[in-house]
Structure formats: structure tokens, C-alpha cells
TrEMBL record:
One of its GO terms (molecular function) is acyltransferase activity, transferring groups other than amino-acyl groups. Gene3D superfamilies: 3.40.630.30. Residues 1-137 form the N-acetyltransferase domain. This is N-acetyltransferase domain-containing protein. It holds the Pfam family Acetyltransf_1. It comes from the Bacteria.
Length: 137
């Protein structure tokens, strides 16, 4: 199941809106995201430091990754994968595609530490620095 990288724009297509609706329904309650994809897009578009990477499979959105820009680079805040595809390494592939993009753009990616669970980030070139995992180009 190859996943490709795309970016959410403030004008998603009808298909993207439909895909986002399904994806947002799978979000944990703690995310407090709106059920309406149009509201989600408006919220993200209103935050000038935020950007959303999309994981695409067969032309459909199967995952998203919220990123926040800072002086250090792009912080990977959270990743959401459609429940139907969670066992298919979609999140791993999305991080891989983001890493490839970061290499091309000479961007730094950061992930806040959540303990030993994130040691697999070493395979993507991330290094642990305090409470952050950082991938520099």
C-alpha cells in the first residue's frame, strides 16, 4: 500500500472534502476536531504557522499529519490514519515521505518525545535531543 505525500490547501476538492470527513470521524475525542471538514480546513488555514501533510493512496486521503512551523523547523504535532488502514504502515510511510520532502527542501523535522515508543524514528534519521526527536538535513 504505497502512500504518497500531498498538502492540504484552503480550497480542497470535493473528493478531498469527502475523504477528510471520513478521516476526521476516526480522530480520537481528545483531538477536539470539528466533524465538518470545511471547518477543519478553515481552522488550519487561519493558523499561519500550521500546515497539514496528507497521506494519499490510490488518489484518496488515508492519513494526515499536522505540522507547526517554528524557528527550529517543522514540528510534527499529530498524525491521524483512517481506521481501515491503520494496520498497513500508513503512518510509517507518511513519516518516510515527509522525511524525503524535508531532505529535498533542506527542512528540519521535530517530534516531541513520548518515551521509548519513538525509538523507531532512528530509522528515519531522527536523533534524540532532550525531549525532541530532530531530523536535520
Amino acid at each position: 500500500m504505497p502512500v504518497y505525500l500531498d498538502w492540504l490547501t484552503d480550497q480542497p476538492t470535493t473528493q478531498q472534502t469527502s475523504d477528510l470527513r471520513k478521516l476526521l470521524q476516526d480522530a480520537p475525542d481528545a483531538w477536539n476536531v470539528p466533524d465538518c471538514p470545511e471547518d477543519y480546513v478553515a481552522i488550519m488555514a487561519g493558523d499561519v504557522a500550521a500546515t497539514v501533510a496528507l497521506g494519499i493512496f490510490n488518489g484518496r486521503i488515508v492519513a494526515l499529519c499536522e505540522l507547526q512551523r517554528s524557528d527550529q523547523g517543522l514540528h510534527i504535532e499529530r498524525i491521524l490514519v483512517r481506521e481501515a488502514t491503520r494496520a498497513r504502515t500508513v503512518a510509517t510511510q507518511l513519516v518516510h515521505r515527509l522525511s524525503q520532502w524535508a531532505d529535498k527542501e533542506h527542512a528540519t523535522l521535530l517530534i516531541r518525545d513520548e518515551g521509548e515508543r519513538l525509538n523507531q524514528l532512528l530509522a528515519f534519521g531522527f536523533q534524540k535531543h532532550g525531549d525532541l526527536w530532530i531530523r536535520r538535513n
